[in-house]
Amino acid sequence: MNKLISIEEFQKSIQNYNNFTVTGFRWSGTPQLLLRSIRESFDHYGKPNNVTIIFTSSATDPGIDHLADPDLLSCSYGSYYGSIPKIRKLVEKNLISGYSLPQGQLSLLFREIARGSPGLISKIGMNTYVDPLLNGGKLNDRTKDDAIERIKIKNEDYLFYKKIDIDIALIRGTVSDKMGNISMKNEPVKTEFLSMAQAARSCGGKVYVQVSRESNNLLSPNEVDLPSHLVDGYVIADNIERDHRQTNKYSHHEGLLNYGDYNDKITLNNDPVFKKIIAKKALEHVNPVSNIILGQGVPELVGVLARKNKEVYKNLLTFMESGVIGGIPERRPDFGVAFNPSAFLTQDHQFAGFNGGHIDTAILSFVEFDQFGNINVSKLGKDYFGCGGYIDICHSAKKIIFVGSFTAKGLAVEKSKNQISIVNEGKIHKAVKNVKEITFSPIYHNKRKDEIKIITERCIFNVENGKVILKNVFPGIDIQNDILNKMEFTPQIEI
After folding, report:
1. Is 464 an annotated catalytic residue?
2. Is 51 in the same domain as 129?
3. Which of 112, 300, 321, 457 is catalytic?
4. In sequence order, what are the residues at sequence separation of 6 or more whose Cβ sits closer than 8 angstroms to the Cβ of residue 277?
5. How do residues 21-67 score in pLDDT, each as one tens digit?
């Protein structure tokens, strides 16, 4: 059976369904054509409507922002909202319901749904804002239903992430044969496409795939990533530039698919001095023979510096939450892919490994930290950014290095002869008495005695037993004027 369908056939088939899930990591793996077609169907026919969208990572540019209309979209389950500004605004204005749940737990939840389970049992997210003891991941007053419960198993507390019914799964592949077998051969991320398709099937739902081309011959079994029995129909994206680019920057780049030497053009030339200082200090605390994961922002610079010193860090293996292993992670707006990758995993398998303790060191950004060592990265003022994979990664890593500027909004720093001077101080202090939202809690790590550091451009703190300890002040920095006077609490000092 030929499962090729037109966009018009796709639109007709999905009009009476409500719960949609979609793959994508920023631009990569995002079925732009399918998402735009949903919006066009709504604009022309008023259907589908009252839609719930479920996504692990933000399918962007515009991606799921195509659905940003309160008459079309009623509820959003996702991890990171920072790159979908239109949907984020609907949530912030209380026009739709919204949940921000850990990216890895959402991806693993698809596996549970696929096997007919009522949900996912996990410790990840406890003592953070997704914990029902805080707000259960709810983003506004409109959001009433509980997505997570606390349960006890043998007198031990766990979180229970509830099953979400799926009517339609929207997936992107590279090529399909006429039977509907799908290969992901040119996709620079795998996402959680297989578990998502299986989950939709287990719910009695349908699976639609966007591809860039059709093969005249049956695909070899070794080429098939998504078998035809899980596919209800596929559409061909004729306009690659508009609908099927590999990333925001690249229509197609072999360096994102193969191991080689493609990434030498990645530089730090345009980054401010304070970010370079932080990244260099962070790299000094990384074991050259280890598995590390790098987050967005300043952590992106760490990978570049490691590349420039590749003789020392030749045995440093980088992991990305998107499923990419090895290589040098690309920077925003293409965060999530890497040049010279050594392997691709689906996102749910990647997080399964993270949760199992496969990561030695995590280097992640922070928005603010408080007297107890709690970190906020998910809420900035009134803006809900969500956690992405942050909560999963923090929970599982053996060593965590949080990196960021000591102050924000206006900070300027100079460095000469190993002396650091604050040229202009930032207006926002990031060492606060209590964070606005707890994205990371050290409680679990205190029990395991994991190493936790906060590295800024002027000093380094350790977090131990619920205390923030000032351990290192950089040359040129005045401890009273440049550090203590800029904090809402007094740290323990061990210099």
Report:
1. no
2. yes
3. 321
4. 413, 415, 420, 457, 474
5. 999 999 999 999 999 999 999 999 999 999 999 999 888 889 999 99
